[in-house]
Write a structure and sequence with these properties.
- By secondary structure, the chain is of the alpha+beta class.
- The chain contains 4 helices and 9 strands, in the order H-E-E-E-E-H-H-H-E-E-E-E-E.
- The strands form 2 sheets. It has a 5-stranded antiparallel beta sheet with strand order 8-7-6-5-9, with no helix packed on it. Strands 1-2-3-4 form a 4-stranded antiparallel beta sheet, with helices on one face.
- Strand 7 and strand 8 form a beta hairpin.
- The two termini are 27 Å apart.
Length: 182
């Protein structure tokens, strides 16, 4: 649930600090409008966790990393790009909102009544599901080892796995590239 916690913090920060409507694509993408606004990678290290977050803030369409990407400024209607000072203020507001949201959610997650790291009793699982755009959709999941899984995503289980209902029954997925099928 570490990357899911980070995703909720980033989506909420973009909504609060930048007035951008966001949703989460399991497991680690923040979407806005028709594009990817941010990506998240959380890895365990000997001393703890390292969370990497990349948010497209002030990019114009030509500056984006590729098709399917968007930025905070584009979503706010400022495709010409902000004045330098406005861009700096937006980045600072967004950074403060991400860090404070992450700290608040992490504290609740580690002090959960059901035990440290319990996504249910901390409220994290419910909050993630409110932001999640993947659950309830038909998906194709590209799994490690060139396998694929197709079905309807139905839930995020207590371990943070995406549950996909296939013709053979529910399958929990812990890693993979999810494609939302129309």
């Amino acid at each position: 649930f570490r990357s899911l916690l980070t995703g909720v913090a980033v989506a909420a920060a973009a909504a609060e600090a930048a007035a951008v409507e966001c949703r989460l694509k399991w497991p680690n993408d923040v979407l806005a409008g028709a594009g990817k606004l941010a990506g998240i990678l959380v890895e365990g290290q000997a001393a703890g966790l390292v969370a990497g977050v990349g948010i497209n803030v002030c990019q114009r369409p030509a500056d984006l990393p590729g098709p399917g990407a968007t930025s905070v400024m584009i979503e706010r209607g400022g495709v010409g790009g902000p004045a330098p000072r406005a861009g700096t203020e937006l980045r600072e507001r967004l950074l403060i909102a991400v860090l404070s949201g992450l700290a608040r959610r992490y504290a609740a997650w580690t002090a959960a009544p059901g035990g440290p790291g319990d996504p249910g009793s901390s409220g994290l699982r419910a909050e993630y599901l409110r932001w999640c755009d993947t659950v309830g959709r038909d998906v194709r999941v590209l799994l490690p080892g060139d396998a694929a899984l197709t079905g309807r995503s139905t839930d995020i289980d207590p371990l943070g796995r995406l549950v996909v209902m296939t013709s053979s029954g529910p399958v929990p997925v812990s890693a993979g590239d999810v494609i939302h099928v129309r």
